[in-house]
Amino acid sequence: MFDPAMFSLAGRRAVVTGGGRGLGRAVAEALGRMGAEVCLAGRNHAALDEAVTALGNAGVTARALVLDVRDTAGAPAALATLDAEWPIDILVNNAGIENVRASLDVDAALWDSILDTNLKGGFFCAQAVARCMSARGAGGAIVNLCSLTSYVGVPTAVAYGSSKAGLLGMTRALASEWASLGIRVNAIAPGYFRTEMTEIFYDDEAWVARMLDRIPQRRFGRVEDVGGAVAFLCSDAAAYVTGQCIAIDGGYLASI
User: Fold this and answer.
1) Per its record, what are the GO molecular function terms (predicted)?
2) What confidence tens digit (pLDDT) does each residue in 37-66 have?
3) CATH numbers and ranges of domains, the chain
4) Exposure winner among 30, 38, 40, 192, fewest CB in 10 A?
């Protein structure tokens, strides 16, 4: 029998990397409004504290954890320490960076910085949390932030697209492997959202007009558009959903 309570996240604890701003902060708020306690993880202590205060004012129980996902020793250790006192039920791998550059000009430093954050960091955070969940004999949910570039090629975004395509592959592989541990691994693929990281694109009026013409809903995404899908994937309503990626793109992928 269908029970609306399956959508509730009451009593669960969720870590959102890159949770101090943009999509990560919106996801954290959505999870909190569905009943979860949330931990915003990231590098910028001031941004995290500001976000925790704002979420608290909105009635969301939130805390901050300073870590750098690129630190493949320090970040997992920080998550394990957190789990020992605050058992983690949900991880949202949102931390990510982009640097627009023509492919012929991409150097090893740029490649490593993007892949180390978006893909390598995401894996080792997921691994750390899965180890904790497994040691406690508990299941859980992991949601990775993929992208339209997980599916399509975008000029000047070769490193970013490679990281996000890899993240989609990682999502499917971990879902297959960790199902026996009761851990579900899914992803969302946000389309074109105007955030601090993507602001550079929206300064180009011709680009804006061209992209709006390609999006069936004829608008760009708003940060609040992502929270519902993530909350669903983390809830018992998605108990039989794993290894999937939901595109939140106004119909862009469906129309090409």
Assistant:
1) oxidoreductase activity, acting on the CH-OH group of donors, NAD or NADP as acceptor
2) 999 999 999 999 999 999 999 999 999 999
3) 4-254 (3.40.50.720)
4) 192
